Amino acid sequence: MKRAFQKPGRSREYGKALAREIDYLGLDSVSIVGIISLFVGAVVTIQTALNLDDPFIPDYYIAIATRESIILEFSPTMVSLILAGKVGSNIASTLGTMRVSEQIDALEVMGVNSASYLVMPKVLASMLFNPILIMLSMGLGLLGGYIAGNLTGVISTPDYLLGIQLGFKPFYITYAMTKTVVFAFLITSISAYYGYTVKGGAVEVGTSSTRAVVSSSVAVIVANYFLTQILLGT
After folding, report:
1. Would residue 142 count as lying in a domain?
2. If pLDDT is split at 50, 70 and 90, which confidence band does 55 have?
3. Comparing C-alpha atoms, which of 49, 98, 94 is closest to residue 69?
4. Which contacts of 96-102 are long-range, i.e. CB under 8 A and separated by 24 or more positions?
5. 89 — alpha (psi -120 to 50), left (phi > 0) or beta?
6. Axis-axis angle for helices 202-232, 79-100 (nearest 10)
7. Is 2 within the bounds of a domain?
8. Which distant-in-sequence residues (6+ apart) come within 8 Å of 192 by Cβ?
9. Greatest extent of the chain over all pairs of C-alpha atoms, in Å
10. What is the pLDDT of residues 67-115, one digit of tens each?
11. What does 65-99 look like in DSSP terms, one character per residue?
C-alpha cells in the first residue's frame, strides 16, 4: 500500500487511468445496483407491513422502518458486499492475469511504479464513485417501497410519503457515506493485494479471486460493526 500511494510520476497518465477505472468499476455496476435496490426496497416494505399488521400501529411506521433499513444497513453494507463480489473479483483476476503473464514485470523494467499505476486508480475510483452508487441505491430502494405499497395496498401514498420524512435524521446519510468510503477502500485494496501478489498460473488466478472476495467481504462485515459502534454507539 505504501508503494501504491506514492506520488504519481506522470499525473496525466494517472488521470486517464482513474477515468477508465471509474467507468469500469463504477458505471458498469449501476444496473445491478439499481435492479437489486428497487426490488429489495419493495420486499422490505411488504415484509415490514406484515410484521406491523396491528390496528394500533399507524401505517406510516411501515415507511419509517423501510427508510431506516435501507439507509442504515441495506444500501451501504449489503450493496458493498455485492460490489465486493463483482468489483473485487474483477480487480483480483485482472491484476492476477497481468502478474502471471509478466505484464507487471514489464512495467517494472520500464521504470514504472506498477503498484501505484495499477492499484491507486482503482482504489480512488471506488472511493469516489461508490458513494454515488449508494445514494442511487437509497433512492431506488425507497422508490421500490413506494411502488410495492401502491401495487399491494399495504400502505397508502400519503402514509408512505409521511413516513419517509417523519423524524428523519440527516446524520444517517453521513453515517452511510462514511461506511461506504471505508468499505470501498477495503474492497479494492484487499482485492488488489491478492491479484498483485499471485504466483503461478491460471488456476492460482482463480484461487486469488475467490480469496479476494471472501476476505474483502469479511473485512466489510467486521468494519461495519466497528463503524456502527463508533458512529452510532452511545
Report:
1. yes
2. confident
3. 49
4. 96/194, 96/195, 96/196, 96/198, 96/204, 96/205, 96/208, 96/209, 97/205, 98/195, 99/195, 99/196, 99/197, 99/198, 99/199, 100/198, 100/200, 100/201, 100/202, 100/204, 100/205
5. alpha
6. 150
7. no
8. 4, 91, 92, 95, 118, 119, 122, 123
9. 73
10. 999 999 999 999 999 999 999 999 999 999 888 888 888 888 887 788 8
11. HHHHHIIIIIIIIIHHHHHHHHHHHHHHHHHHHHH
180 located within any domain: yes
Q: Which residues contact 213 (CB under 8 A, 6 or more apart)?
A: 84, 85, 88, 89, 92, 191
pLDDT for res 10: 66
Q: Cβ of 152: how many Cβ atoms within 10 Å? A: 12
DSSP 228: H
Domain that holds residue 214: 11-232
Residue 92 falls within a domain, yes or no? yes
Strand, helix or coil for residue 111: coil
Question: What's the total number of domains in the chain?
Answer: 1
| DSSP letter (8 states) at residue 23 | I
Query: For the whole model, what pTM was predicted?
Result: 0.90
Three-state DSSP state, 169: coil
Query: Contact 47/154 with Cβ under 8 angstroms?
Result: no
Read off the amino acid at residue 172: Y
Confidence of residue 177 (pLDDT cuts 50, 70, 90): very high
Grid coordinates in use for 58? 399507524
Asked if residues 45 and 69 have their Cβ atoms less than 8 Å apart, the reply is no
| Best CA proximity match to 46, nearest among 151, 147, 154, 143 | 154
